[in-house]
Amino acid sequence: MARHRNIRTMAYEEDLDDYTSDDYGSSLDNGCVTPETENMYTYARERHESVSKIWEPQQPPVQEEDEQEPGEMFEMDDVKDTGQGATGDSEKLSKCLKSMRSVIGNSVAEGTLREAAISQNFDPDRALDVVFDRQGGASKAAAPQANPESQKAQASQSKQTDPNQHNFQTVPPVETPTRITFNGKDPGPKNAKKSKAVATKDPKEPKVELKVESKAVPRKLSPDTPRSTASPKVPRTPRLDPKAIQDLYDKERTSMKPLLNLVVVGHVDAGKSTLMGHLLYLTGNVSKKTMAKYEHESKKQGKASFAYAWVLDETSEERTRGITMDMAYAKVETEHRCINILDAPGHKDFIPNMITGAAQADVAILVVDATRGEFETGFELGGQTREHTMLVRSLGVAQLSVAVNKLDTCQWSEERFNEIISALKPFLKQTGFVESMVSFVPCSGLTGVNLHERSQLPQLTKWYKGPCLLETIDKMEPPPRPITKPLRMCVADVFKGMQSGVSVGGKIESGCMSQGDKFIIMPSQEPCVVKSLLIDNLPHNRAFAGDNVIVNLDKCEPSQICFGSVICDANEPIRAVSKFEAKVVIFNIDIPVIKGSPVVLHFQSLSEQACFGRLLKELNRNTGEVVREKPRYLSKNSSGVVVIKVARPICVERYQDSKELGRITLRQSGNTIAAGVVTALL
């Protein structure tokens, strides 16, 4: 209130004395606006009307009765009483006439429109049908058999006769969308709400045929209905014949060593990075100069034992903390294989990163710490040895080599080695690994014993006669590559490269990709063109299933590409669904799974919020037989068929159609609770 009192008592004359004309700009007095230019800034109604007449189309003379507003040119005696009174009928008739006028303009007399509206109970659609039948019934019936050339001539003649014929009027939206065509030609877009009609006013010019094409009202789709799988404007590259693709693969890859994607997993501090870094150094993939540099820098930080780990742990944070935080990539060649090494983080906080790497792997190495107490911590007391093993198996890895690391701390004890094997074998069999696909190798990552060549230590050779770690990797068989199937490439990384466009990284799961091919990115349905291909940072013209590539894409919107997107063949795109049916195995959990239980779904490089839908069946974990229909819950170490609902549509395929794109992993509160395969898309 005090502020308002000050305003009321303010001396405005004193305040205004301090202002000059300069504070308010120039005026007529200081010569800025002269009497000659004053008229330019003065509103004149006559001048405004004369200018507006230039832009107004010349209307033909109309009768006096047409000068009145539609809806006012009728007498109440002509309106039938519908039980709502004369006032209600007049409003209906007025609305009906306005709707009819918006379609056909002033080409039809008011009386005809009024009569048609009253006869059809003020329904504008049926009234217009009556008017069209009366005005051009005969020409409408003969329109489909008319000569197209004569129609073009008639249309051009009508355009020359009346210059105002192009003034279309927009049809208002009605319950049944319609498209009005002019002499069999659509004057505008196919969208019914934007369709246009021609209004003719000169009685001497040829009759204009109005043809109404009714379209069915589109059915509303439920939120769970999958989106359309392809856009009609997506560029498409014809897919090669499967035999031609196989011939290309044999021609380009026969002379090369088979490719093998190897992921290294295990509990934190088991020595994964040190083991693989030392193996890379011993095989000549890391120079002595670089290794000396790492040894010197690690000693300065008091971490001399981490020198070999720095070969793969390149970031300053990883070196400071002494743990791997993100996936590290390296390459090594054996006698018969070309190996892509993927070093996964072991800490439980970075398991999502480990899943991303394991999804790209064909085979795996499980590193365990043989030190007494350390193995038990990682395997039995909630460590990551169990979880990593279950994850790699659920992601399709069937061949596993167990590297019993740091056995030198136990003086190469055979008893300790057999103790670890006896604890792991039953668990691996229960997880789904076949015994013939699993091997155990004693080694030491820090000293390099039994890594690239067989050890000569008497303590080890007196009881171990098997191969070294590199020989074990060399014996692993690459899985069959689905190169003849439609292209599927899951995006694991998106970045801006040196070239124009956007670069994406990932593994080609099926099919092949060539430079210049046109594909579609799902689920955003974004078209793209392959500008260039990089394999191991070297340019290639073509890539096949199994290759980890970096693709530079052109003619696409980068914002439409994200982790989990799938680059696929536009002729056979992958489906995007928000719910699907899956056969899952429940791990060792404390709380049973019920309908609505929230989880985080991991699929390839994608993690998405999800929940359990209906629980359809409970299965016997060993035989697969149905134990119970529609169970209320699924307890630990059980198996069942469930419906998974995802927050946003994701691109998956049935396991029987694509093993690579049909596996899922479910986590909850930082723990992996289930894994399974997709059985149906809903």
From TrEMBL:
Q: Which GO terms describe its molecular function?
A: GTP binding; GTPase activity
Where is this chain compositionally biased, Low complexity type? 150-160
Q: Name one GO biological process term.
A: translation
Ranges of Basic and acidic residues composition bias in the record? 123-132, 199-216
The keyword Cell cycle is annotated on this UniProt entry: no
Report the catalytic activity: GTP + H2O = GDP + phosphate + H(+)
InterPro entries for this protein: GTP-eEF1A_C, HBS1-like_N_sf, P-loop_NTPase, T_Tr_GTP-bd_dom, TRAFAC_GTPase_members, Transl_B-barrel_sf, Transl_elong_EF1A/Init_IF2_C
Which segments constitute the Tr-type G domain? 257-481
Region annotation (Disordered) maps to 50-71, 117-240
Q: What is its main location?
A: cytoplasm
Q: Name one GO cellular component term.
A: cytoplasm
| Matches recorded under CDD domains | EF1_alpha, HBS1-like_II, HBS1_C_III
Q: Where in the cell is it found?
A: Cytoplasm
Q: Which PROSITE patterns match?
A: G_TR_2
Superkingdom of this entry's organism? Eukaryota
| Keyword annotations of the record | Cytoplasm, GTP-binding, Hydrolase, Nucleotide-binding, Phosphoprotein, Protein biosynthesis
Which spans are transmembrane here? none
Q: Where is the composition biased (Polar residues)?
A: 161-170
Q: Does the record carry Mitochondrion as a key word?
A: no
**A Pfam cross-reference name:** GTP_EFTU
**Which family does the record claim for this protein?**
Belongs to the TRAFAC class translation factor GTPase superfamily. Classic translation factor GTPase family. EF-Tu/EF-1A subfamily.
Protein name, entry field: HBS1-like protein
Origin organism of this chain?
A: Galendromus occidentalis (western predatory mite)
Gene name of this polypeptide: LOC100906440
